[in-house]
Amino acid sequence: MESMYIARHHNQKVGANQCSSALTKRIKAPADLVWSLVRRFDQPQKYKPFVSRCTMNGDLKIGSLREVNVKSGLPATTSTERLELLDDDEHILGIRIIDGDHRLRNYSSIITVHPDIVDGKTGTLVIESFVVDVPEGNTQEETCYFVQALINCNLKSLADVSERMANNA
User: Fold this and answer.
1) Helix/strand/coil percentages in the chain, nearest 5
2) What is the value of pTM for the model shown?
3) Do 31 and 136 contact (CB within 8 A), yes or no?
4) What is the structure's pLDDT at 103?
């Protein structure tokens, strides 16, 4: 199933000096609950551990911009991001970083949320893919490793928050 979802939803074009990857996480919580967190483009700090604050003007719709403040310890303090895709029926969120004091140029990501069975119970498969420019002085491997580490932290936190919410429901 994973490969089918990746082929269908995570087929971003990758340029010559870019790297790309798709990461997966199985979560022991219903897909609707997980989606309720993921879809909140205006509140990424609900599950993303490196986000300290987020401000967004206007409605939650395609083209909306958010300004994200990053916690200390990372090589950035702010990121300006645009909502590229929000599909509540298919559970797809797409974002693009358009500015910030970091090295993630031309970064875009797609995250999809799919119902799944995890350990014999109702659960969720989350897939997040990205494409980003390789900064001067770095290799594709280094760039992919860094972004994958960030996404894996976010996905682990999403699982922790979702599973806690599911257990308290």
Assistant:
1) 30, 40, 35
2) 0.94
3) no
4) 83
